[in-house]
Amino acid sequence: MFKLINEIVDGYEPSAFELTCILKLKEDEAEYLFNKAYEVKKNTSNNEIHLRAIIEFSNYCRCKCYYCGLCCQNQNLKRYRMTPDEIIENAIEANNAGYKTVVLQSGEDMYYTEDMISYIIKEIKKNCNMAITLSVGERSYEEYKKWRNDGADRFLMKHETSNEALYNMYHPHSSFKKRMKCLRWLSDLGYQVGSGFMIGLPKTGEEDYAKDILLLKSLKVHMAGIGPFIPHKDTNLKEGKMGSAFLTMKAVALTRILIKDIQLPATTAFNVVSKSCCNQNSKLKNESSIKALACSGESEENNENVKKIFRSGANVLMKKVEPYKYRKLYEIYPRDEDKIKSISEERREVERLIYSMGFNISSRMDL
What we know:
The chain has helices at residues 2-9, 16-23, 27-45, 84-96, 114-127, 141-150, 164-170, 176-188, 206-219, 245-258, 268-277, 300-310, 324-327, 343-356; strands at residues 48-58, 101-106, 131-135, 154-156, 192-199, 223-228, 316-320, 360-361. With 367 residues, the chain is an alpha/beta fold. Strands 1, 2, 3, 4, 5, 6, 7 and 8 form an 8-stranded parallel β-sheet that branches. The chain is globular, with a radius of gyration of 19 Å. It starts with a helix and ends in a 6-residue tail after the last strand. Residues 278-299 have low confidence and may be disordered.
């Protein structure tokens, strides 16, 4: 298996079966995979971590995703919307704190019209020297085109699972074919496209994740969010089992060695799961506690969890910057509330954490 990993590093195009075998490596064997992924990351990114601000500006959503706490069927969630000017002011504050990219993310909320989002994009570009990533879901080709022309640089839209039958089951409002069409539209329009998938989504396994990774490569994505499934009590999949942090690390590492220059975030979901399943000796244990880990260097355990995923190939960290009164309401999965601090203070804490682990912080927008 080590020979196969080396061949992939050298450019070999593996089959789904071969990737599946690697994803099934045991803990002692997987160290070789993690080390190779870390080598590839250092060679392609100068050992840099990209810090990105994320503004979750609305938790309204028209979708019926079985796993998401924002789904329109959840009657227990207090909904909110930030005004366009609130979003712009928030982005300017993040830019002043040193962020070079802002991710504008929401549920699929049609309250924000084509012109409204255009206004937000243009005002941020006018006032900030930063890249803009949109993550607002499935919209029309014409909307994507206008926003690209207005200055949007990237678009993030996960495919969640490449298993078409399961995708259609878990997304009754849409279809796998429509999601693929949107992703290809975005690529054709010149966006840097991000996608991604979940580890541990019910009824999926290593064979599915191998196909997910190959789909990322075929789509020629610039970024991929790979994180574990976390059940939410107000969704159809509330009885599902939490995804594995260890398997997530293997999928991130394998994606790094196959798609060498890809941007791979250390997802918040990974931090949630790794906190609940790893003890001080990094051995897996009962994955039952659902507690969020704020990436702020608050404990040695925290530092180790973040360090693990960065040493498995991840090179991006997204930090929430929207006002605290909204953060606790953007609940895709259960998480603890953050301690209230300024955007600048939070960024300094993250910077100290990254430097303490031996990584550098990128100052580039990478466009």
